[in-house]
Specification:
- There is one protein chain.
- The protein is elongated and about 220 Å long.
- The chain is about 45% helix and about 25% strand.
- The chain folds into five domains: about 180 residues, no CATH class; about 90 residues, Immunoglobulins (Immunoglobulin-like); about 110 residues, Sandwich (Immunoglobulin-like), CATH 2.60.40.10; about 110 residues, Immunoglobulins (Immunoglobulin-like, Sandwich); about 170 residues, A middle domain of Talin 1.
- It is an alpha+beta fold.
Length: about 725
């Protein structure tokens, strides 16, 4: 048997081991390069295209499968050793010095090779020796170099160094890549611009209609790019969809801000700045609950006498204006379903307000019903909370204005003043009662002014026959005739009298208090005479004024007759007209005063007084002068003053006016003469009465003195 080439086989074993180790190193480096390249490709694809989760999962499965296949290929290449013949062929290809001797020696000395028997043994032996001699100089490093491993290492460094630098400098990218492509999360990629939306905090929220939405953004990274919002308003029944871009206002150096005011419809928005894009924020806008309709029904208190109608609403608003104590029933309709409803009432309390809440139950159709008493002035409203939790922040506030039942107003219309009467007088009194609704009762009260006078007890006269005014149902009146003769009054007494009324709430109204003075018939006559004396003096002054009017007209006529300009005399005509007005006014006052004196005499049952007929006749005379004489005179003077101012008056017209004024003067002079005669007569009568009284007083004193003297003598004689 020919021995195999030991040195050659040894060299082949060395080459096989070197070749396996180089394959392990080079394959590992190549596989690492493939893995790094796969990671870079996965990163770039997801970074550029922002792959959805499904594509990222599919990409991960693909790269994982690819790396497993390549790993198996490398592993199998390392695991299967090369045959000696294959190594010999590789060595001969690398070293031309062997000239096929090595592979021939290896193959022909192989015991399992049947072809070795076809060759000469000596030739085989020589070939083995030749291969042995030439293999001795063969170096494995010349045959298998690390060139491929170095290239694989170079590629690994090119792929891994940027990866390590990126992980060191931008750990956020590394974390995001692991989160997105390993754990398949939807974490967004960081960009050159990184914004954090501080408000709103939730990407989907519901707001109340009319509220404001603040978008507050903080910039953590980036340059000076402009920020804006991409806003989308979805279509509604009455509005179309709208897309627009809204520029963000800068907030400091690193922030943006925008405020959506008075939101009325749903919207979606997202923020953009540089390469940053946020997710979509969805805002749903819902209406706040509010009162759409309200009806009030009044149940009036019994004291008002008003009819209550609980079927037809009194008002279709929330403002309450009703008498105090009215029961107010309400029925309100809410705009949308509510979770809770309260009726709130605010009443004044000191410097603040006292709030009271009443929870209500919502009926079908979003209807609220309830009632409350209108006792004091207040405010009230509804607090509503919708199913979404929205509260009507600015509810409609209604006013409660109660109409208080004031105490009755009482007025003593007749006589309506302090009066003086005799004990026999027939006192006429008329009382007017006025109340918000109706008067229940009334009375007329007389009481002595001073208790020590002993005038008697308080006298109360009920008003039992009150008459309601058909034109004004709130007014009631009654007239009384009181015969003072039955009261046994004495001259000199003074009584206070007033009227009182009581309404349904037992509120009492009191009139002004007047004084009733009791005079004797002589004192009342004296008062009447004094008043007539004053009236005479007043009419004497009036007669003087009337004479002045006549003189002024005479001056006017004289000036016109001499040819002076009529317009220059206009002031004289106006002064005469003014003086005549004063005369007419005083005559009317005198007639009224005489009528008052006449009524007082009749009221005090002094119809037999001597002055009564004369006073009534004098009053009628003054009335006739005022109506029949003074009226034409005033009209004539008015016309004269106008024509004088226009410069059209003549001396004849002035003479006519003088004639009219002279007639009035004569009539007034006759009245004054009558009063003067009556005054002179009354003066004489008064003097005679005083003499008679003086004579009576003298007789009484003489009689008293005589009695005293006679009584003294009787005592000195022992009483005989």
């Amino acid at each position: 048997m020919i021995e195999r080439p030991k040195l050659a086989l040894k060299r082949l074993r060395q080459l096989r081991a070197r070749r396996r180790w180089m394959r392990v190193v080079t394959g590992s480096l190549r596989w690492i390069c493939l893995a790094a390249a796969a990671v870079w490709l996965a990163f770039l694809l997801d970074w550029i295209a922002v792959l959805p989760q499904a594509l990222r999962i599919a990409q991960g499965v693909f790269w994982l499968t690819f790396l497993l296949v390549t790993f198996r290929a490398i592993f199998m290449a390392v695991r299967v050793p090369a045959k000696d013949s294959e190594l010999a062929a590789m060595v001969e290809l690398s070293s031309k010095e062997l000239e096929d001797s090595l592979i021939t020696a290896i193959q022909l000395t192989d015991p399992n090779n049947p072809r070795r028997n076809y060759y000469n043994q000596d030739l085989i032996r020589q070939t083995v020796e030749l291969a042995e001699s030439r293999v001795e100089k063969l170096k494995p490093g010349q045959l298998f170099t690390w060139q491929r491993a170095r290239w694989a290492l170079f590629c690994c460094l090119i792929l891994l160094i940027p990866a390590f630098l990126a992980a060191e400098l931008r750990p956020d990218l590394f974390r995001n890549f692991v989160a997105r492509n390993v754990f398949f999360k939807d974490t967004p990629w960081p960009r050159s611009y990184d914004l954090v939306i501080l408000q709103p905090t939730e990407q989907q929220q519901t707001l109340a209609k009319g509220s404001s939405l603040v978008v507050d953004i903080r910039k953590d990274r980036g340059g000076g790019a402009r920020g804006y919002l991409e806003v989308f308003f979805p279509a509604t029944d009455d509005r179309g969809a709208i897309e627009e871009e809204i520029g963000l206002d800068r907030k400091g150096e690193d922030g943006f801000r925008h405020v959506f005011q008075n939101l009325q419809r749903d919207l979606q928005f997202r923020a953009h700045c540089g390469d940053f894009s946020s997710g979509w924020y969805v805002v749903e806008v819902r209406s706040r609950p509010r009162i759409e309709e309200i009806e009030l029904y009044y149940e009036y208190p019994q004291y008002t006498g008003l009819l209550s109608d609980l079927e037809n609403p009194a008002v279709r608003t929330g403002h309450v204006k009703a008498p105090v104590g009215t029961r107010v029933k309400y029925r309100a309709k809410v705009s949308l379903p509510v979770e809770s409803a309260f009726r709130v009432e605010s009443r004044p309390s000191g410097d603040g307000e006292d709030l009271s809440k009443e929870q209500l139950s919502v009926q079908a159709g979003n209807i609220l019903e309830g009632s409350f008493n209108a006792d004091v002035d207040a405010r009230w409203w509804f607090e509503l909370t919708s199913l979404e939790g929205f509260v009507n922040e600015n509810p409609i506030t209604w006013r409660i204005a109660v109409i208080p039942d004031r105490s009755p107003e009482v007025l003593v219309e007749v006589p309506g003043q302090n009066i003086e009467v005799t004990p026999r007088a027939m006192l006429e009194i008329s009382v007017l009662l006025r109340d918000d609704y109706s008067v229940q009762s009334g009375s007329l009260i007389f009481e002595p002014e001073l208790e020590e006078d002993g005038a008697g007890e308080v006298k109360t006269l009920p008003l039992e026959n009150l008459t309601v005014d058909p034109e004004n149902l709130r007014n009631s009146s009654e007239s009384l005739s009181i015969d003072l003769d039955s009261w046994n009054l004495e001259p000199g007494q003074r009584w206070k009298y007033r009227a009182e009324a009581r309404d349904a709430l037992d509120q009492i109204g009191v009139s002004r208090t007047w004084i009733l003075s009791i005079l004797s018939q002589e004192e009342l006559e004296r008062v009447t005479q004094d008043e007539l004396t004053l009236l005479r003096e007043r009419l004497e002054e009036t007669l003087t004024v009337q004479r002045d009017v006549r003189r002024e007209l005479e001056d006017l006529a004289e000036a016109l007759s001499t040819g002076e300009d009529a317009s220059d005399q206009a002031p004289i005509a106006r002064q005469a007209r003014t003086g005549q007005d004063r005369v007419s006014t005083r005559i009317d006052d005198a007639a009224e005063r005489l009528e008052t004196i006449s009524n007082r005499l009749l009221r005090n049952r002094m119809s037999d007084a001597e002055e009564l007929d004369w006073i009534q006749s004098l009053r009628e005379n003054l009335d006739n002068i005022s109506k029949d004489t003074m009226a034409p005179v005033r009209e004539k003077l008015d016309q004269l003053a106008r024509r004088t101012a226009q410069g059209e008056v003549s001396a004849a017209e002035a003479e006519e006016a003088i004639f009219e004024v002279r007639q009035a003067e004569n009539q007034l002079g006759a009245v004054v003469s009558d009063l003067q005669e009556w005054g002179d007569m009354r003066t004489m009568i008064r003097k005679i009465e005083e003499l008679i009284r003086s004579e009576k007083d003298l007789e009484e004193r003489v009689e008293e003195r005589v009695r005293q003297l006679l009584g003294g003598e009787d005592e000195s004689e022992g009483g005989n």
